[in-house]
Amino acid sequence: MRTTLRAIALAALAALPLGGCALGQSPGGDVAEGSLASKGSLDGVTLTVGSKEFTEQLVLCEITAVALESVGAQVKRSCGMSGSNTVRNALTGGSIDMYWEYTGTGWITHLKQTKPINDPRQQYEAVAKADLAQSGIRWLAPAPANNTYAIATTNEKAAELGVKTISDYAALAKKDAKQAAFCGAAEFFGRNDGWPGVKKTYGFDLPRSAVAELALGAIYSSIDKSSPCTFGEVFATDGRIKALGLTVLEDDKRFFAVYNPSLTVRKQVMDRSPQLADIIAPISAALDDEALRGLNAKVDVDGETPEQAARDWLRAKGFIG
Questions:
Q1: What three-state secondary structure class fits 153?
Q2: Is residue 10 part of a domain?
Q3: Total-model pTM
Q4: Which GO terms describe its cellular component (predicted)?
Q5: Residue 301 needs a FRET pair 20 to 30 A away by CA distance; which of 132, 174, 283, 289 works?
Q6: Which domain holds residue 193?
Q7: CA nearest 257: which of 296, 182, 180, 201?
Q8: What is the pLDDT of residues 187-213, one digit of tens each?
Q9: d(CA 159, CA 88)
């Protein structure tokens, strides 16, 4: 049964077209009030919500748009812009009013800092303070989800090998390199905050025969088959983790940078509609790793549209009616 379910999941992942909402598309329509209605009204306010092009961002764009519509806003969608810099420039240039950015991306990519801050609260506070001062961008309350680099294996292999943390993995690598065989993408192997840093921080190495460089999309199926690797690089909130039954190892030395999503909003917009912070806060608080993995899987595995996944989640949480 496990093999069959995984085969179905992998086939679905391969067959699905890239999902998303077209730039400027406004599915909109009437959205029944839910618990967000008690947080404030945006009647008569028009807002433009943007996002990057990958699944998680498309879902976050729709969650935001539908939530704002439920409290009276007229929402224009610019979901699916290509690349972090493109959507960031749209925000700072005033083409959009808000989008979800990741704290580590804001700190390293947009603010050009070279050292990530590994404590989530400190990283958020640092990027929020600096970005407001430098660019007039407000970072609303961050979600607990952390879409960072991670190392994963199958649930079965994690149990069989007794590996729960990256420290456990490092001990395995020293003992049995073949069992610790690792797959990663070229970028991960070349970044100091990727494979070189992991090995240095956790004090291990692997022979070249136990390391395979693959396209990012191929890593998940390779881990699932335990060939050519038992462990591999993943992104912590990827829906395929849930679909394939993978275990994400705990980064017990907190090496990887923190990438908590936060809705970034132009200061002028917040000054006009300060209630945005209260409206978004409960949504952000509910977006933990499990929630985002589930939402991503709804799109990437089950074939739902980002809007459908977003509406169902908001309704299930009681945020909309």
A1: strand
A2: no
A3: 0.79
A4: ATP-binding cassette (ABC) transporter complex
A5: 283
A6: 149-248
A7: 201
A8: 789 877 789 999 999 999 999 999 999
A9: 42
